[in-house]
């Protein structure tokens, strides 16, 4: 191609197109060059026209107001994206146990904990979740057939971690059914799901420092196995059956459990309809607080509570 052809946009385009037709092996690369060359020629022509029309006495093709509006829209769009990103990052921080000052103050108001205690509990939460994630990855590494759950560090505290915490930290040693119920009743509305930071803090507030009314509501949720608002004879039987030590000489071990169910009904069924409603339970506990954990331990001992709370002040 001559220098003269290189200066003439149309001639150069036709020459490159002809080369493309005559050399199919390099067709793709040459066609790309054609597109770039012709596009640059069009941009140069458009710029020349704009300069001619936007001189000292010329009129612009696009009013400045439109350009300013577009700039403002772009800024507004970036601001909205920035806000969304901040909300997402804040949510991620919350799930991982990190709190900004506003969230810290909010949880202080919503729980019975001080700011120092909330911060300490967030650190414990992060550690528990991190350890669970590491254990999951180690399990997957040692068992090729097991796939580590993606993003497990964001899932919260699962059953296995929670149960170990109840045993080792809060001295709750009870049978499997009751342990499962404590986990499910921990965070109202999220039964059976991993415990998130908010549920962790709110649940511990009741668990460790709750009022009589809060602890009564929690224990009732634990004992109401099917969450229908009543503790029935069958549910009482299921809860008490594993609490008794069966003796080999007993002809019918379940007879003792049935006797306990009848005793519990006499104490807790205030309206005598054969089942315990939440109102029945509230009234009975108000009269006799020792009946709060009548169907099995689901709250920490005073010694375990004091020991755990003391670690939060360190």
UniProtKB/TrEMBL annotation:
Region Disordered: start-end pairs: 45-80
Pfam families: EF-hand_7
UniProt cross-references to InterPro entries, sorted A to Z: EF-hand-dom_pair, EF_Hand_1_Ca_BS, EF_hand_dom, Recoverin
Molecular-function annotations in GO: calcium ion binding
Keywords linked to the UniProt accession: Calcium, Metal-binding, Repeat
SUPFAM superfamilies reported for this sequence: EF-hand
Sequence ranges assigned to domain EF-hand in this UniProt record: 211-246, 256-291
Top-level taxon of the source organism: Eukaryota
Record's protein name: EF-hand domain-containing protein
Biological source species: Anopheles maculatus
Taxonomic lineage of the native organism: Eukaryota, Metazoa, Ecdysozoa, Arthropoda, Hexapoda
